[in-house]
Amino acid sequence: MNTQITASNPLSGTQANALAGKVAVIFGGTSGIGLAAAIQARAAGAHVIVIGSDRERARQAAEEHGLDWRAADVTQPEAIAAALRDIPKVDHLVLLAGTFVAAKVIEGDVDYMRRAFEERIWASVHTIRALGERLSRDGSITFISGVLADRPNAQGTAILAAASASMEALARGLALELAPIRVNTLSPGHVETPLLHKVLGAARDTVLPAMRAATPTKRLGTAEEAGAATVFLMANGWMNGTTLHIDGGVRLV
């Protein structure tokens, strides 16, 4: 797997300076799409704070890429509040944290399945409430959903698909409730990240080729591509209440 992430500025034209001097907080920003977005936002001039569940990984990622960092379990409201307590202002809040929760409804553990909503819906609610007036009125919030919101399957992902679709609905509602703060959702397809490899485990050598073949572009996405889409949602002041699909067209097949 190619894990190299470059720090090129993904923005151009009038958006090129949109993040200069802004404060961006990225939950789930210590690896994969979140880290790619953090690196690119920093290249665009933002002061970036990444927040991850693993303290040591957060520290290493931050030191390697010139970022600020915090550690917090997003299922714990007190931990979220503590991580954000000393940040006076947040211009762009990005909420990408969440594990791959897979269990069939009939047989799965309910507390485990509930985690899909705790890590997404309720973590977002607690984060927004913790920041309150510190969220810039001319800033943005970016959620993450995923292709499961459009294309659920029979492999124990019904609850995760529901949680993903709920993030898109939450963004649309909050775009009105929190106006003029912009609220959007990134919906990535199959992106080659450490999380994907962890989820697939020993089966990845057989599953990954099938995933590539099933995608119209005949390849998986990269963390850098999905990260650039995240930065676009942060910087483009006319994007609001929208779900941005970056999936190679896989939701169409």
Structural overview:
With 253 residues, this protein is α/β, with parallel strands linked by helices. The protein has a single domain (20-246), classed as 3-Layer(aba) Sandwich (Rossmann fold), CATH 3.40.50.720. Helices cover 41% and strands 18% of the residues. It has 8 helices and 9 strands. The chain has helices at 32-43, 55-65, 77-84, 110-131, 158-177, 194-200, 204-214, 223-235, and strands at 23-27, 47-52, 68-71, 90-95, 135-144, 182-188, 191-192, 221-222, 243-246. A 7-stranded parallel β-sheet has the order 3-2-1-4-5-6-9, sandwiched between helices. Helix 1 (32-43) packs across helix 8 (223-235) and helix 3 (77-84) runs parallel beside helix 4. The radius of gyration is 17 Å and the shape is globular. The model has no long low-confidence stretch (mean pLDDT 93).
Short characterization:
With 253 residues, the protein is α/β, with parallel strands linked by helices. 41% of the residues lie in helices and 18% in strands.
List the helices and strands and how they pair.
Elements: E1 23-27, H1 32-43, E2 47-52, H2 55-65, E3 68-71, H3 77-84, E4 90-95, H4 110-131, E5 135-144, H5 158-177, E6 182-188, E7 191-192, H6 194-200, H7 204-214, E8 221-222, H8 223-235, E9 243-246
Parallel strand pairs: 1-2, 1-4, 2-3, 4-5, 5-6, 6-9, 7-8
List keywords for this structure.
alpha/beta; Rossmann fold; 253 residues; seven-stranded parallel beta sheet; two-stranded parallel sheet
The helix/strand series, from N terminus to C terminus, equals EHEHEHEHEHEEHHEHE
CATH hierarchy: architecture: 3-Layer(aba) Sandwich
Quick one: biggest sheet? Answer: 7 strands, parallel
Low-confidence residue ranges: none
**Count, helices:** 8
Strand content: 15-25%
* Average pLDDT for all residues: 93
Counting helices, strands and paired strands, the structural category is alpha/beta
N- to C-terminal separation? Answer: 25 Å
Provide the CATH top-level class: Alpha Beta
Structural shape: globular
Q: How many structural domains are formed by the residues?
A: 1
CATH topology: Rossmann fold
| Cα Rg | 17 Å
CATH superfamily: NAD(P)-binding Rossmann-like Domain
Helix content: 40-55%
Strand order of the largest sheet: 3-2-1-4-5-6-9
Q: Total strand count, please? A: 9
